[in-house]
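Suppose you are handed a protein chain with no further information: no name, no annotation, nothing but its sequence. What can you learn? This example shows the usual starting point.
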Amino acid sequence: MTSSKPFLRALAGDTVRPAPVWMMRQAGRYLPEYRELRIQAANFVDFCFTPSMAIEATLQPLRRYAMNAAILFSDILVIPHGLGQDVAFREGEGPVLDAITDAAGIEALQPGAVNERLAPVFETVRGVKAALDEKTALIGFAGAPFTVALYMIEGRGGTEGTKIRRWAAEAPDEFGRLIDILSEATTAYLIEQIENGAEALQLFDSWAGLLPESMFRRWVIAPNRRIVEAVKAAHPNIPIIGFPRNAGVLYRDFAVETGVDGVSIDATVPLEWAAETLQPICTVQGNLDNHVLLSGGETLEAEVGRILDAFGNGRFVFNLGHGVLPPTPPEHVGRVVDLIRARA
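A reasonable first move is to predict its three-dimensional structure. Written in structure tokens, the prediction is:
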């Protein structure tokens, strides 16, 4: 039966007008109501694991904008936390983890306890689903194994991934053990999100673009495919979006070989190439530059128009090429939504 939700229809292969829209990090620091909520939690981990706050954060942008989907408010690093690794978020510094440096650190992880430790996330999923109207879909998500492994090994983001890339090159079997643990934990986590109400999923492989082709195939395509296959075996009708950021021409192979229903593309991807190469394979999601959204004005309006012109005659979901930046004026997000709605 065809869904009444435009976002899910687009992922099923329909051409939907006006294009469905949601934005990565649509719940976040650019919203004053989010900032007011955030200061009520002692730290970001507590914020993510307090369902009443996470539910409210998820719903806040839907009260402002006519988005077609809510995305669960959480973080990709809940999986390392669930595995027993120390994870903290420092103001002005971002996530800081007790880095894994050897095989013993990998074997010390506790994969059997992940979903039990992440029970508050599933409570959030249930609460959000109960609050949504019949037209708005709920997206669950997780970080893909390579990207999560980068934080676990480097101890933070914002690096060139030297430690993880050396480990993967010098001891691939050892490194592969971590990828296997993350693949299995992520699969179980996503299936539990579905069983609590998530209607679609996104896998964020934000650091995929660091890898050369051969390593991209082994550490990005292969584990994403494994997760997609396992989730689809349990829930065949749940659409999955992959986001191997900065994959370049390898977006095509990723889309073909992983079996995702949609591929989210970053802002560097040429529109004509994506429309000709990716749209025939799966739904395309993207790809407004988040700095153009920050800037607003005529450039923003022109870029929104270019994207709609490029993808509007096929299966498409409007989004950014990466998340909303904290200094973004909320009215710029509203303007984008209005421009999309005007294309009905």
